[in-house]
Amino acid sequence: MSGLSASTGLKQYLLVTANYWAFTLTDGALRMLIVLHFYQLGYSPLAIASLFLFYEFFGVVTNLVGGWLGARIGLNKTMNIGLVLQVLALAMLLVPTPMLSVVWVMAAQALSGIAKDLNKMSAKSSLKLLLPEHAQGALYKWVAILTGSKNALKGVGFFLGGLLLSLYGFQGAVAAMAAALVLIWLLSLVLLQKDLGKSSFKPKFKDLFSKSAAINRLSAARLLLFGARDIWFVIALPLYLSSEFSWAQTEVGAFLACWVIAYGAVQAFAPVLTGKKSGKAPNHHTALFWACLLCGLQLLISLAMQQSAEPLWLLIGGLLLFGAVFAVNSSLHSYLIVSLASRDGVSLDVGFYYMANAMGRLIGTLLSGYVYQAYGFYACLYLSSAFLLGTVLVTWRLNTTPQAAAE
Question: Using the 8-state DSSP alphabet, how is residue 193 labeled?
């Protein structure tokens, strides 16, 4: 396994996955805590969206700079730095409620955004180094399992956030998560392989930007894909369920948790759904088919809900279908970037790609709050459809052949 024995590679994979799981659990819980807690305090949808502005913005910066940093100092170090920063972000939220101003929470979310994307970039990049170059089928499987299990736990985090807020209040929930992450960080310091992912060359700052046309196009498709999801999912959906259908905090948290858990499960099984039995790894044609399917489905949900006298049931059914197809799209993209990335300094290409992912979330989050407040939930659905059409058009130009990836 690229210089590692099979047993050592598997052990490191399990360590990376466990680290990523623990972080993701707290990240999902914190997001739900903030949305519900500040909605309780009377914040508007746009104001709540602004609380995540720095979280997403610094995610953009972190993925770009973090890829360069990982190549210079090693992925184990960037992963552990991410854990420490998340603990600090949680600690900032332990101040008395009157001190939880918008600016203070935005600053805490900035640290959390840096932490999350350092952790994710490190975990995804490390998979490229734990398998031989030719093992594309196994790489797709490992990426799908890591991504799917992470999102399932993020769903558990949504439920946990709503539950802990109801049981112990905002500060009690935050304190418990901070203590758990300190323990995970200490274990990671001891057990994670040193210098994992450290490049054989010292990349310069100009190396942050991808020179591959294939990676640039895949990154653009990723930006539009996640922007499309977050336009209606991040702010608009939980507030729509709460305001229009009088769902309680725990009900909103539980529903979104179940959705994300199911979404993660589909991601983990994406290799089966996309033709693993044929023995061929997916390519840009596979990605285009699933992007077209998702775009058509989202437009159908938008039209059907607006014409229905029972929009809630259409919304729930549509969300389940959307989540399944979106999960396959996301898993395909996650595999393609790891496959296309250069092996030496893999975190540079992966970091650039997840920079685009974070930019999509940033745009989607801001639009979710603004469009929902100004034009309503259906406008968010139609705008999401437009973003997905953009994903289709960019994916249509994608080429994943070895020659294209090397351009």
Answer: P
Q: Range with the lowest mean pLDDT among 95-99, 148-152, 246-250? A: 148-152
Query: Do residues 137 and 276 touch, judged by C-beta distance below 8 A?
Result: yes
Per-residue model confidence (pLDDT) at position 388: 97
For 52, the token pair is 């995540």
Q: Which amino acid is at 353?
A: Y
* Nearest 10 degrees: Cα torsion 204, 206, 207, 211: -160
Yes or no: say if 24 and 157 are a contact pair by the CB < 8 Å rule.
Answer: yes
Q: What is the C-alpha separation between 85 and 73, in angstroms, rounded?
A: 17
Give the whole-angstrom CA distance, residue 39 versus residue 37: 5
Q: pLDDT (tens digit, 9 = 90+) per residue, 169-190?
A: 888 888 988 998 898 888 888 8
Task: Give the domains, in start order, of the chain with CATH numbers.
Answer: 6-192+211-405 (1.20.1250.20)
Which token pair is 172? 């009690």
Q: What is the DSSP string of 3-29?
A: TS-HHHHHHHHHHHHHHHHHHHHHHHH
Whether the CB-CB separation of 174 and 48 falls below 8 Å is answered with: no
Q: Give SS3 for 170.
A: helix
- Alpha helices of 308-376 — where are they, by DSSP H? 311-340, 346-375
Specify whether the CB–CB gap between 143 and 281 falls below 8 A: no
More confident residue, 397 or 6: 397
Residue type, 114: I
- Predicted confidence at residue 399, as pLDDT, reads 79
- Report the predicted TM-score, pTM, of the whole model to 2 decimal places: 0.74
Distances (CA, A) of 155 to 28, 158, 162, 180, 225: 7, 5, 11, 18, 19
Which phi and psi angles does 282 have, rounded to 5°?
-70, 155
Cα 277 to Cα 149, 184, 272, 289: the distances in Å are 22, 37, 7, 18
8-state DSSP, 94: T
> Which of 43, 28, 49 minimizes the C-alpha distance to 230?
49
